[in-house]
Amino acid sequence: MTAKAAPAPATVPPAGPSGNGAARGKRSMFRRRPFFTVALIVSLAYILGAIFAPLVAPYDPVAQSIDAMMQPPTGAHPLGTDSYGQDILSRVIFGARYALIIGFCSVLIGAVGGLIIGLAAGLSGGWLEWALMRLIDSILALPSLILAVAFIAILGQGVDKVVIAVGLSMIGPFSRTVRADVMQVRVQGFVEAAHLMSIPYLQVVWRHVLPNVIFPLAVQVTIRISEAILVSSSLSFLGIGVTPPTPDWGLMIAEGRDFVSFAPWMAAMPGFALALLLIALSIVGDGIREEFDPKGRRGS
Amino acid sequence: MAMTETDTLLTVSDLTLYRGSAKILDHVNLSLARGETLALVGESGAGKSTIAMALMQLLDGARIEGRADLAGAGDLFSLSSRQMVRLRGKRLSMIFQDAGAALNPAYTVGRQLITTLRRNLGLTRPEAYRRAVDLFAQVGINDAEARLSAFPHQLSGGMQQRVMVAIALACNPDLLLADEPTSALDVTIQAQIIRLILSLTRERGASCIFVLHDLALASQSCDRIVVLYAGQVVESGPVAEVLNNHRHPYTRQLKSCVVEIGRADLVAPEGTVPPHDQMPKGCRFSTRCPRALARCSDDAPPPMPANPDRGGPHDHVFACWNPE
Amino acid sequence: MSFLMSSASAPRTEKVPATAPVFELIEVEKVFQVRPPNSGLSRKTVGLRALDGVRLRVDTGTSIALVGESGSGKSTLLRVLLGLDAPTGGRALYHGAPIREARAKGRDFARDVAMVYQDARGSLDPRMTVEALIAEPLRHFNIVQKDQIKARVAELLDRVGLPTDAGRRYAAGLSGGQVRRVAIARALASEPSVLVADEAVSGLDVSTQAQLLTLLRGLQRDMNLTLVFITHDLGVASYLCDEIAIMYLGRIVETGPTDVVLNAPAHPYSAALRAAAPRFFEPMPEPLSGEIPSPLDLPPGCRFSTRCPAAQPDCGERDPQLGRFGAHRAVACLHPLTNPQA
């Protein structure tokens, strides 16, 4: 984010430790954060696998085969097959598609909704703020899974419905963080300075408040994608999310649950894929936040 | 001021301090006699606070070379942290610029003072309470009994600093380190606090190291002065001698920047302190020095006596190849 | 010139005696309604007099220092001058018109009166480059053609002593002194005639401070700026400003030409401030006793009487107003320390 520390001008002392630190950080972020780098590679692998699933997957994810039912991992089926003889590796790869699409889209819905409500609450004040905050509080009172279940009950099943349900359930937490950021930004000196320059209010919001809110929000998005994926998988696991035979991880875990004693790979493989992705995304999100948050960097 | 060995309270020799690859302090030498007040002056990055923090062993992640001998305790840098805990408060203590942040907001100031007294001096609760009331009166807090039950945020900045002085002097240390104790305060309060610290340390025969950025204040309050630039001692000695007959060009620059009342001319110095990876090997001021010679940037000047006939470690010393 | 409004005819500045002063404050009062400390759950509020009977006159082209300790009302006075707060009593005028109206009327006031904040870093949007920060007022006030903005930014950076490549950097990557220079460049971008600076050089190293002071003095002279400079440092005030106004507990207690006031202070508080400022090799002065009283609980009579070393019995009874003291000075004291000179 910071421009590279240019050679300090002749008349003024250098930026000191903070300036040098920022420049040093720019060069070797990947070397300084090995976990972050590994997690990033893993996440990218998932994304590439999801995009090129038809090319990468060895079998059609919904092709059933009576000859190869519940086979343990072998050369032909590296992760084994399930009770319908479907190849688990192919289903896990295609499952990444659904997980990531549902994750991204629903977080986007949550973030946009949260941005609008949070901005309105943070800037309005008075009764409108009070009403919006009570609304957000009531949303936050329920865990997002319960909320998503409620929305599914209204909307019905299907991938698009899951996206909307999970997205709506995430508006609450997003609006609260946006509002907190807005409250913090609007009392900053630079907002008053803009006001002093008689710049119109909406222009101040657009030019000075919004950019300072959007960035922390973007960091929030990267962190909350994993939460959205988890909620959507939980919905499928409960049997109220996407419908079979869609290769969805939650669904696969649910199906494998009945055979866990003699075919543990059926539930374990998608479970492992899910856990690995969630951990990788969390590490990436945390790394981005720690590296680019100007508050953490301003230190000295 | 004639010095004998027994008068010396603290001797810092060749203190070099690294943070990562950056050399924050470069062969710093200091000595302090009993009952003496010493000012460490310089601009930000000069390392003056770092010296005080290093003496208190309050620095994390720094590599320290050199010695700091405190009379009767040996080399402070080779003490274990447990031994250091026993020394803090009793032998040496410190007050900070921001007293509000140094006091614990969750406890009353009285409780913080009484805890210090009981832990370090082993007093009973009533004894410690009486002592606390006494100390508050000494640091000029009226209505001491009521103020003991106040929380830090209920006190003004000046009052908070008085409380800090009371806590720091509670166990009669013989060395007090004061890191910019008044730069967050108004000038009329500043005068009160500095006078308070001076009179209380004098009463106890304690020595005091002030970290200051104000040369004029240093000239008013201290016996001796150490001028630092980018982690090197450039000049040190009796305050009047150093400030009136300075030899190092940096001391001149620092003096010329003080805006005294009624001053109409002000020549701002050029340049800036180089970043740590571009620091010259020799004299660190050589990049900005108007009198720099060719050898200055490669060859660090050793401390040289300004008056060789008098000599002695406490006399006027400077480190410059081309002194004024 | 900065004393009583009743003596508007005093022709010390020969330049423009006919026009109204830039700023004129007449008996300005600002009362905040606050809940008193330790009031528990009670909702009762009391009035806090942040400003009380302030009289000040700032003529075109002068430089005036507002000096006082924390709690003296400097910041509130600043907000009134900038039109951010309306006074609850008295009149605050800008070229003869109420400041709040002048601000509400359009961009002219905002363009003419520029501000340098004490927290220079906080006053600069951390997500904008230095160039974008300085270009903002240029664009907003239509100072130059669009295609000349870049050139003008470079010019301004050069004027405040920053290299052109500083324009690509963010405030977080600049040192304290550099950030203040950016704030000054941004304030000058709208080509103001009045520059209001709040502690613009405090908290810096002496050499950085010296660099900024020489810069500000040069700017003030070259651009014929009217400078209102808030500071706690009398040395800075005496270097930069022709006039000084010393505040204590919401009132201006003494004003006049800086060198005259500081050489022979008439108000005991001015004298105490003068004495408390560190001076080379002077013995430490006897400090003022006590601390500034709470504005919620003003002492009767003169508000300085509780700490005044020269207080007389009547000081606790009568509240002195800022009154003329010689030709160009004014003081609010019943027993001034010096005699007025004609």
TrEMBL record, chain A:
It comes from the Bacteria. One of its GO terms (cellular component) is plasma membrane. CDD domains: TM_PBP2 (cd06261). Gene3D superfamilies: MetI-like. InterPro entries: BP-dependent_transpt_permease, MetI-like, MetI-like_sf, OppC_N. Residues 1-25 are annotated as: Disordered. SUPFAM superfamilies: MetI-like. The keyword Acetylation does not apply. Its main location: membrane. It is a multi-pass membrane protein. Residues 96-285 form the ABC transmembrane type-1 domain. GO terms for biological process: peptide transport; protein transport; transmembrane transport. It holds the Pfam family OppC_N. The chain crosses the membrane at residues 34-57, 98-123, 135-156, 262-288. Keywords: Cell membrane, Membrane, Peptide transport, Protein transport, Transmembrane, Transmembrane helix, Transport. It is found in: Cell membrane. Belongs to the binding-protein-dependent transport system permease family. This is Peptide ABC transporter permease.
Automatic annotation (TrEMBL), chain C:
It is a peripheral membrane protein. GO terms for biological process: peptide transport; transmembrane transport. Signal peptide: none annotated. Transmembrane segments: none annotated. Keywords: ATP-binding, Nucleotide-binding, Transport. It is found in: Cell inner membrane. GO terms for cellular component: plasma membrane. InterPro entries: AAA+_ATPase, ABC_transp_ATP-bind, ABC_transporter-like_ATP-bd, Oligopep_ABC_C, P-loop_NTPase. Its main location: membrane. GO terms for molecular function: ATP binding; ATP hydrolysis activity. Residues 26-274 form the ABC transporter domain. It holds the Pfam family ABC_tran. NCBIfam families: oligo_HPY. PANTHER family: D,D-DIPEPTIDE TRANSPORT ATP-BINDING PROTEIN DDPF-RELATED (PTHR43776:SF7), TRANSPORT ATP-BINDING PROTEIN (PTHR43776). Belongs to the ABC transporter superfamily. This is ABC transporter. It comes from Puniceibacterium antarcticum.
